[in-house]
């Protein structure tokens, strides 16, 4: 596993005006797997531009503004049973740049049905503090860090 690289990635913690965050259920796994929107960073792509692009691709909207970001790149390793299967089998995990964003649109602007092969099949708003208890275990340490880092943005629309 240590021979495989990390996939560079951006992630979005999208806050609504009530201070809750968007979490979405993955369409490609049998389990009830929920996560924040995230996606690959293209070679030479600016992470801030990439996170807005990913919102458009994954949840059908870019009606958001960047509030802040985690200054560090955060990494996670896939569990052994997913090595060679997840992430097209080419990576050991992901190296991620995370952004807090304020959602400036109406809920109707979130459209999972625009992509013919959507990554998510459901979404909902939840409290920031609930994130670590919702996600798969190997992502939990990153989500715990996001709760601490982005608590200050819950009242962004006030």
TrEMBL record:
Annotated motif Nudix box, positions: 39-60
Q: Which family does it belong to?
A: Belongs to the Nudix hydrolase family. RppH subfamily.
Query: Which HAMAP family does this UniProt record tie to the protein?
Result: Nudix_RppH
Q: Does the keyword Hydrolase apply?
A: yes
- EC number(s): the record gives 3.6.1.-
Record-linked InterPro entries: NUDIX_hydrolase-like_dom_sf, NUDIX_hydrolase_CS, NUDIX_hydrolase_dom, RppH
Domain Nudix hydrolase, residue spans: 5-148
Q: Which cofactor does it need?
A: Mg(2+); a divalent metal cation
PANTHER family membership: NUDIX HYDROLASE 26, CHLOROPLASTIC, UDP/ADP-SUGAR PYROPHOSPHATASE
Q: Which GO terms describe its molecular function?
A: bis(5'-adenosyl)-pentaphosphatase activity; guanosine-3',5'-bis(diphosphate) 3'-diphosphatase activity
Q: Which Pfam families match?
A: NUDIX
What are the record keywords, sorted?
A: Hydrolase
Give any single GO term for biological process: ribose phosphate metabolic process
Name used for this protein in its record: RNA pyrophosphohydrolase
Q: What does this protein do?
A: Accelerates the degradation of transcripts by removing pyrophosphate from the 5'-end of triphosphorylated RNA, leading to a more labile monophosphorylated state that can stimulate subsequent ribonuclease cleavage.
Segments traversing the membrane:
none
Q: What class of enzyme is it?
A: hydrolase
